[in-house]
Specification:
Layout (H helix, E strand, L loop, with lengths): L1 H128 L1
């Protein structure tokens, strides 16, 4: 009888172990599914990292381009400022020359008027003397 009891208790134990194994197999299957999900997520993260790195590289290139363009703008601004200053000086000289020319023209016009007056006087004197 002890063998029969022993067999029965082994069968009961075996059934319990089979139930536990079934539960573990279900848990293992769920873990496999989760693991696959995590692998997919990790692949997505790697893709995002690659994309992020590419974007950072593009950002750096754009920043370098912006820096280069700003330097060019500063240089052009300096050049135009120098040209502008030269033109202002030239304009002042031309304005001074214009003023000087006007003054000289006025002097000449006065001289011409004086000469005309002299001519008229000389004609009058000439006519009186004839």
């Amino acid at each position: 009888m002890s063998n029969i009891q022993s067999n029965n208790s082994l069968r009961k134990l075996n059934a319990k172990l089979l139930v536990k194994i079934g539960k573990f197999e279900k848990k293992f299957a769920k873990i496999k599914v989760k693991n696959a999900e995590f692998k997919n997520k990790n692949a997505e993260i790697s893709d995002f990292r690659r994309k992020f790195i590419k974007l950072e590289i593009e950002k750096t290139k754009f920043n370098n381009r912006i820096t280069k363009l700003l330097r060019q703008a500063v240089e052009e601004n300096k050049r135009y400022s120098i040209e502008n200053t030269k033109f202002k000086v030239r304009i002042k000289k031309l304005e001074k020359n214009k003023t000087d020319s006007l003054t000289e023209n006025i002097r000449c016009n006065i001289k011409i008027a004086e000469i005309k007056v002299e001519i008229v006087k000389l004609k009058d004197n000439n006519e009186k003397n004839q």
